Amino acid sequence: MSVAAIGTQYATFAVADLFFGIDVLRVQEVLCYQEMTRVPLSPVVAEGLINLRGQIVTALDMRRRLGLAPRQAGRLPMNLVLRAEEGPVSLLVDEIGDVLQLEPAQFEPVPDNLSPGARELVRGVYKLKDRLMLVLDPERTLEVDELLESRTAGSN
Q1: Helix (H, G, I), strand (E, B) or coil at 105
Q2: What does the alpha-carbon distance between residue 29 and residue 105 come to, in Å, rounded to a whole number?
Q3: CATH code (residue 78)
């Protein structure tokens, strides 16, 4: 049976009230909160660096990346570690969900009412029984170089 015949598997996670999925093949691992080292002059979305078994990994705060309110005090994020060309990158998310297998025929374009922050990072959506799953574009999500210029310029 071909992969297309069985659909795509998505690792799911939540950020605020948004429910996301990302191709499971892009996910390296899921970790509980890891202590981070802040990096001066880094993009606002870069929460810091974590040590993943001797490998230094950048941790991006998805709430900041999406332009959402900060996480509640005392609530620690989870790390969703993605495989990227430059090496692993951790997305800090609120909750980790299940792996879902979905059919390509169910895939729909990005809705017009999605917030601008989310809209630029989403490839499309799946309508599930009880909610909408936003399909995260990993390449676009990990493009933070432009954010360094735009957001640090505004904080001077």
Answers
A1: helix
A2: 28
A3: 2.40.50.180
149 lies in some domain: no
What is the CB neighbour count within 10 angstroms for residue 104? Answer: 9
Tokens of 102: 């979905």
Q: What is the pTM of this model?
A: 0.86
Cβ(50)–Cβ(57) under 8 Å? Answer: yes
- Residue 74 structural domain: 3-139
Pairing of the two strands 78-82 and 27-31: antiparallel
Q: Which tens digit of pLDDT belongs to each residue from 32-51?
A: 999 999 999 888 899 999 99
Evaluate the CA torsion angle 94, 67, 127, 9 in order and state its sign.
Answer: negative
